[in-house]
Specification:
This protein is mainly α and 201 residues long. It has 3 domains: 55 residues, no CATH class; 68 residues, no CATH class; 58 residues, 2-Layer Sandwich (Rec A Protein, domain 2). The protein is 50% helix and 7% strand. The chain is built from 8 helices and 5 strands, in the order αββαααααβββαα. The strands form 2 sheets. Strands 3-4-5 form a 3-stranded antiparallel β-sheet. Strands 1-2 form a two-stranded parallel ribbon. The mean pLDDT is 90.
């Protein structure tokens, strides 16, 4: 840029009056294309407290945002790929599975119509497709977690804060503990008893 050495150091008085003029129209910076002035403005804006470095980084105090079209497109494509995959997995579900899945989201789905179950679950998946993968698609414990949730709703199991009880016996101090306890081969008689009681109620 033709500056003498030290002109752009952190302590240089050059920064006392340096600014980037922004108006109502977007400012386009051609970064990494040999344009030193655009690179300088970009680095200055990138470190400014009122400027977000991406749309996803916007905070209450943000007045401006830097948009990297390529990076934003990549991020958008990643999100859309997850959404498309979530829809494909959703299409594989039976109504029974949809009801189970909704229960893992914390919804009592037993008395809902099939249309409401499908509509509610699809809405949740659209809003947060990754959560659908975590709670259902990639969750190897989903069947036991469903059993626990169903048993709690029918008072077969009792939950106090994060602790799960069967009668007066503690079966887990978290849902993860309770799953491990019920999936333990030596506790299968208890698991079967809980399943039968839950089906009857």
């Amino acid at each position: 840029m033709g500056f003498e050495e030290g002109k752009l150091s952190k302590s240089s008085p050059y920064w006392d009056t340096f600014c980037v003029k922004l108006g109502t129209k977007p400012v386009v910076l051609h970064v990494d294309e040999g344009n030193g002035w655009d690179d300088l403005q970009y680095l200055f804006l990138k470190g400014h407290k009122r400027v977000a470095v991406s749309i996803s980084d916007i905070k209450p105090g943000t007045d401006y945002v830097l948009i990297n079209k390529e990076a934003e497109a990549e991020q958008s494509n990643r999100i859309n790929r997850v959404k498309r995959e979530a829809v494909r997995e959703f299409d594989k579900l039976s109504t029974v599975d949809m009801r189970k899945c909704l229960r893992l989201y914390g919804y009592k789905s037993d008395t809902l119509s099939e249309d409401l179950v499908e509509s509610k679950l699809f809405s949740l998946i659209e809003h947060d497709p990754q959560s659908f993968f975590d709670k259902w698609v990639n969750n190897k414990n989903k069947n036991t977690e469903f059993l626990i949730a169903q048993a709690v709703s029918k008072n077969v199991l009792r939950k106090s804060r994060n602790v799960y009880y069967y009668g007066t016996d503690v079966i887990g101090k978290s849902v993860i503990d309770a799953v491990s306890y019920l999936d333990d081969p030596k506790n299968q008689d208890l698991k079967m008893a809980i399943m039968k009681e839950t089906e009857v109620k």
